[in-house]
Amino acid sequence: MALHAARAAFGMIRETWLNAALLAAFLAVPLAAHALGEPFIVTLATKVAIFALAGVGLNLALGLGGLVSFGHAAFFGIGGYAAGILASHAVNSEPVATWPVLLEGSRQMLVIWPIAMAGGALAALVIGALSLRTSGVYFIMVTLAFAQMLYYFAISWPAYGGEDGLSFYTRNAFPGLDSFAPLQFFALCAILLAAALGVFAMLQNSRFGLALQAARQSRDRVVASGIRPYSVQLTAFVISGAICGLAGALYADLNRFVSPAMLSWHTSGEIMIFVILGGVGRLCGPLAGAALFILLEHLLGGVSEYWQVFLGLLLLAVVIFARGGLIGVLAGRSAHG
Amino acid sequence: MSGLLIAEQVLNGLQYGVMLFLMAAGLTLVFGVMGLINLAHGSLYMVGAFACAAVAAATGSFWLGLAAALAAAALAGAIVERVVIRRLYARDHLDQVLATFALILIFSEGTRWLFGSFPLYLSVPAALEGAVRLPGGIDYPLYRLAIIAIGLAVAAGLFWLIGGTRLGTRIRAGEADREMIAALGVDIDRLYTIVFALGAALAGLAGALVGTIQSVQVGMGEPVLILAFVVIVIGGIGSIRGALAGALLVGLTDTLGKVFLPVAFAAVMDPADANAVGSALASMLIYVLMAAVLVLRPRGLYGAA
């Protein structure tokens, strides 16, 4: 027993060091790349930051809450479309909506972000309220189906480009920064990722987070202690949707383009891959997973056009042999049960 | 709107529903018996379509292609079950989702590597070309009628297989209590492989039949897979009867919605907008149906309470 506890404590210390090393590398690589005049690598690191942010969002629902959502592309895509729609209306100087309130388009990230987060949160509230009536495999299929519904809606709704997507030619603005400079945009994304990691760490050990984790481990006991799992899980799902919405807005800005592909089930699968490759329920799991994914895409993509075959084989190996993901392998099993 | 058009669209909806049933039946069987969520079911559908197109192109016979589709999908299913899926039965759904997602990547890119990115085309067999005149004066493509007939025949065969044969009894027993039937001397590993290969063959059949209506291409399986999920969520997971009811409901709702919603909106707004709004809403209709079923019956129409 004592040995077990000591081993778990050692694992936690090791995970803390690992997280620190990971974050240091995550900051050092783009800084070095910038110094060496390699803006492409800075952009890759920005992509990692954005994907990791979406992963942190999903990790809240999936890792802490055990809610296997296969529909987080919905929130990611809604955030992306919020950015794209606001920006395109600002360019044409037409209001987005005149009723019930006048909503003007905007090119300010500080305006776009809250709207993207609210959009993600609202969608998560509706989808979560319905999906959480089910559990297990139903939950997976239902979240997938709702995301797919939005995907088909985006394809068949012609106002914002339909299947072709929506381009906006310059990146949205942030006061005092040149958002088009790769390193400055990376800094923005990295700061938001750090904030989200902070929120995750705070929630994980809060009363709310403990209730959420308890609901995953034993729903009946949570009910017996007078907590309603439904509202705890729905709250987590909504926060998770808001974070993914923010990530989507940043991703749209990174590419200056949104398309229905952001809403597709493939995106949901990828966000899930970031979380699982890194380690489900681990603080820095999504960052490790997203970094590994981008690295693989970049390295294998250069070797073979069919790099996804290798990605598939690697994923299979992780699922079958290396449960706990990258951080699980390096830091040992944690107390995450 | 004429009665003829409505009747024709109802037949189209039936044909679509029957095809969805072939997909959903395998998924729901595998989930019911093994408790496994299989995202790669759409890949088996694609394997069936490609096998049919390749063999039909090589031999000139659609029927040989159809046989090849069944064999290739069943074989792929059996191999995948033996090598990968078997390790996942005891795992949670998250591991199953991820591993079968990985299988999709491997199947899709592998197929792209073998056949290239360009779609293949399958033509309707000569015996089923042309249209027949149905009572009431509708000219309807014979091939689509044949799909409806094949689908309903397969449904009847499945009900018989599950309800009236020794294998079906074992499958139902495996659903109820895996350890007990293993203790009674049934080779449960073999039973699981058979069930998985059977589901795969049904998916392959669906893929081959649809290959003549749509083009055969990589990624064709995923939209159908997601619709099959909607079908079994509506019907109740594990229930073949639910899969049939859900598939027909989804097929009819989707087909009729896409035709009639734009027309209905045109009555109240100008035609160009009506078309956009109508078709956008029609694409969401089956998901609204699913949400409604979930609110009323969270375990689906035929699901165990």
Number of strands of chain B: 2
Biggest sheet of chain A: strands, sense, closure? Answer: 2 strands, antiparallel
Largest interface: A-B, 44 and 44 residues
Main beta-sheet annotation of chain B: 2 strands, antiparallel
Query: Helix coverage percent of residues of chain A?
Result: over 70%
Describe the structure.
The complex is a heterodimer of chains A (337) and B (305). By secondary structure, chain A is an all-alpha fold. Chain A has one domain (2-331). Chain A is built from 13 helices and 2 strands; from the N terminus they run αααααβααααβαααα. In chain A, strands 1-2 form a two-stranded antiparallel ribbon. The longest helix of chain A is centred in the N-terminal third of the chain and has 34 residues, at 2-35. The mean pLDDT of chain A is 89. Chain B is mostly helical. Chain B has one domain. A two-stranded antiparallel sheet of chain B has the order 1-2. The N and C termini of chain B lie far apart (42 Å). The mean pLDDT of chain B is 89.
Keywords, separated by commas or semicolons:
heterodimer, A: 337 residues, mainly alpha, two-stranded antiparallel sheet, 13 helices, B: 305 residues, 11 helices, 75% helix, 3% strand
